[in-house]
Write a structure and sequence with these properties.
By secondary structure, this protein is of the alpha+beta class. Strands 25, 26, 27, 28, 29, 30, 31 and 32 form an eight-stranded antiparallel sheet that branches. Strands 16, 18, 19, 20 and 22 form a five-stranded antiparallel sheet that branches. Strands 6-13-10-11 form a four-stranded antiparallel sheet, with no helix packed on it. The chain folds into two domains: 2-238, no CATH class; 273-532 and 542-728, no CATH class. The chain is built from twelve helices and 41 strands.
Length: 741
């Protein structure tokens, strides 16, 4: 009898349930396991073979004539009688001359034509069929060995009946395709019948496990589950490896877990230099209380001159620079043009000079960068008067605006006038808050908060209206919005006798150590005689210390002279209450120029006040020296006219060297001079000794920490003023750049 290889269980069931007539002359495929086993043993799987006699086969099964299709009800009876999960031997049901196979378990979700069933038959079905005709125990052992040798590709190509995935895809009551093909499915009667069938199917499935076929099928299922578990584990490993690769590509240093990763920095080139030059000193008119006072012109002998120097980098032309009005609307003087007349020589530096320009208002020095560095430039405003109430000498460097600064040494006692001038040279409005500290503690009052300074304007505040009768006042200026420049115009009038003038500049920020240089002390005998007169008590030299914090400060003062330490009465140690300003007299020092080192157990700010003049009926000038910052490279000290400049340096902690280079009036640089400074000493050198006819001196310091200042004395009279050295060269900055959301 010619027949096809055994089709899958689903195809057999589809042939039965669909009630399709068998083609004429074609044998009906058998689902008998014994027949299939015989075919597999004969090695003829996958093509038509002559089947062995079947004891249950009917004589007319070899050539089946055309017959009527089996009704759906009979197919349903076959399906209901035999649950999907129970494999049964081959049975034939004759109905209307057609032979239908009994329902066979659903072995897979795929539905194929009977012609291709032989090619897709899995090898596991043949192995299961062999169990029914051989020794069960031996078959099970052979099956276990065969299963372990099968390739994964063959198993995937030939799905195994009974796997967990197929059981989930083929419910006991029938596949989704069969349910869709049966119009009556889903009725209440069938639902009740299905509920009754499910327990029976579960019982048959449990009984099946005890049979040889069940054990083989169980082994197949276990193997498939192990393969699925291995596939899932491999997928997890692949995902973990991919995550490791991605994580490693994002980490800056994969081998340094737990360490902070430095944020890369972007170099920002230096910007143009902007420095605010204060306006000339003037007398107050009318009430001295409040803000925005009216000023009267000073005496006819008074003059205010502005001198500026702009230095180029090595091998670069002098950067474009000019003097502007405070609002930047008008250029008053050009220092250097944008396009120089000739290219500079390699390694050679030159300077643009502007000297002795009379000014009567606030001005701004502006200079473009020189190469990658900010321009080395400075300007000095010098006021001098030989008569009138403002007789004396006062000078100040043009100041780079900031948002936080300290001004020390202001006086608001009787006859003393202190005017705080705030200038906003930016394009944004500035809101300024003031903190005032006096001899008895912090001074609270109205008018110290929210002071608005519009762009390009100057705000003048009389400090006596905020803190009256203060012999030593410390002012902290803090601005939000635009940065501001701050300076205090200080003047003293003792009766009808001028007591001195000064432009007080900001001191170094609060710190446990402060160094003040350029402390000029006159003959102590003359000072004692002067201070014995009524109203001249404040003419005595002193060091002033402000403690801004909430803890009292134990302050130690060390005076450094040309030969080293100078002892002070009481050892120079005193206590300053928190939030107040304390003073220590320096009238016991011999005549000379000194440096003062102030150390404390908390952060403090400091300055010194000195006077020059010995007669009570003659003008006496005033000098305020603020604490300065450590020197570095390219500090430019401009030498104003009608005065004598001395440069003072000190190295409190160790030896150091200072290199001085003169800048001539024609813009050329002279030879370099080296000055050695021993540890704990002060060195003073005249600027004229660096070179004749100089417009400025370029200063560079090496070695241990060096501090310095410029001391000005009037060519005629007792005028005295002290300038802290300006900041050195400023290069570009590095800004951390982080990428994120």
């Amino acid at each position: 009898m010619s027949r096809k290889d055994k089709p899958s269980g689903r195809r057999a069931r589809m042939q039965a349930n669909s009630a399709s007539p068998a083609p004429q002359g074609e044998a009906v495929a058998s689902s008998d396991p014994a027949a299939d086993s015989a075919e597999a043993q004969n090695g003829e799987a996958g093509r038509n073979v002559e089947a062995a006699p079947d004891s249950e086969a009917k004589p007319n099964s070899e050539a089946m004539p055309n017959s009527e299709p089996v009704p759906d009800s009979e197919a349903m009876q076959d399906s209901e009688a035999m649950p999907d999960s129970e494999p049964v031997p081959n049975e034939r049901v004759e109905s209307g001359g057609a032979v239908n196979e009994a329902a066979v378990p659903d072995d897979g979700p795929e539905i194929a034509s009977p012609a291709s069933a032989a090619e897709e038959q899995p090898a596991e079905d043949a192995a299961k069929s062999n169990v029914s005709s051989a020794d069960p125990g031996k078959a099970v052992a052979e099956e276990e060995a065969a299963l372990t040798a099968e390739a994964a590709a063959e198993e995937e190509a030939a799905p195994v009946a009974g796997t967990a995935a197929e059981e989930a895809a083929a419910p006991v009551a029938g596949t989704a395709a069969e349910e869709a093909a049966a119009p009556v499915a889903g009725t209440a009667a069938e639902e009740r019948a299905a509920k009754k069938e499910k327990p029976a199917a579960r019982e048959k499935a449990a009984a099946k496990k005890d049979t040889p076929e069940g054990r083989v099928e169980l082994l197949v299922r276990r193997k498939r589950r192990r393969q699925q578990a291995g596939t899932a584990a491999a997928a997890v490993l692949v995902l973990a490896a991919a995550a490791g690769v991605v994580g490693g590509s994002l980490a800056a240093n994969p081998g340094s877990a737990g360490k902070s990763v430095a944020i890369p920095a972007a170099d920002v080139p230096a910007g143009p230099l902007t420095a605010v030059c204060p306006e000339p000193l003037r007398l107050l008119a009318g009430s001295v209380a409040g803000t925005d006072p009216q000023f009267n012109p000073v005496s006819g002998s008074a003059k205010t001159l502005l001198s500026a120097v702009v230095l180029s980098g090595a091998g670069n032309p002098v950067p474009a620079s000019s003097l502007l009005k405070a609002d930047g609307s008008t250029e008053l003087k050009t220092i250097a043009e944008d396009a120089p007349d000739a290219d500079p020589l390699a390694g050679v530096r030159s300077a643009g000079i502007m000297g002795s320009l009379p000014v009567g208002e606030v001005t701004v020095l502006s200079a473009e960068p020189s190469g990658t560095l900010q321009a080395t430039a400075n300007a000095v405003v010098a006021f001098s008067a030989g008569d009138g109430d403002l007789a004396g000498l006062a000078a100040a460097n043009c100041q780079t605006p900031g948002n936080d600064m300290w001004i020390m040494g202001a006086r608001t006692t009787v006859g003393a006038t202190a005017v705080l001038r705030l200038t906003n040279a930016s394009e944004s409005a500035a809101t300024v808050d003031l903190e005032l500290y006096g001899a008895k503690g912090r001074v609270e009052g109205t008018g110290t908060r929210g002071i608005l300074v519009p762009p390009g304007q100057t705000k003048s505040i009389v400090l006596a209206g905020l803190a009256a009768n203060e012999p030593a006042l410390a002012v902290r200026v803090r601005s939000s919005g635009g940065p501001v420049a701050a300076v205090v115009q200080q003047s003293i009038l003792r009766g009808l006798t001028p007591g001195g003038v000064e432009l007080i500049q900001p001191a170094a920020a609060a710190a446990p150590q402060q160094v003040i240089t350029g402390v000029r002390i006159q003959d102590p005998a003359a000072t004692r005689k002067l201070t014995a007169e009524r109203g001249y008590e404040s003419a005595a030299p002193a060091v002033q210390v402000a403690v801004p914090g909430s803890t009292n400060a134990v302050v130690s003062v060390r005076v450094l002279g040309a030969g080293g330490d100078i002892p002070l009465p009481g050892g120079g140690v005193f206590t300053v209450a928190a939030g107040s300003v304390g003073q220590l007299p320096l009238d016991a020092l011999p005549e000379g120029t000194y440096s003062v080192e102030v150390t404390a157990d908390v952060s403090v700010t400091a300055n010194t006040v000195t006077s020059r003049g010995s007669k009570a009926d003659a003008p006496v000038d005033l000098a305020v020296a603020p604490a300065g910052e450590r020197l570095g490279s390219d500090h430019l000290a401009v030498l104003p006219p009608d005065s004598v400049s001395d440069l003072t340096f000190s190295a409190p902690s160790g030896p150091a060297e200072v290199r001085l280079t003169g800048v001539a009036a024609d813009g050329s640089l002279g030879a370099e001079q080296i000055i050695s400074i021993a540890a704990g000493t002060t060195v003073t050198t005249p600027a004229a000794g660096v070179g004749p006819g100089l417009a400025a001196v370029l200063i560079n310091a090496t070695g241990e920490a060096v501090y310095g200042s410029q001391v000005l004395t009037a060519s005629k009279g007792d005028g005295l003023s002290v300038l802290p050295l300006p900041k050195g060269s400023v290069g570009g900055t590095s800004v951390p750049v982080g990428l994120g959301y």
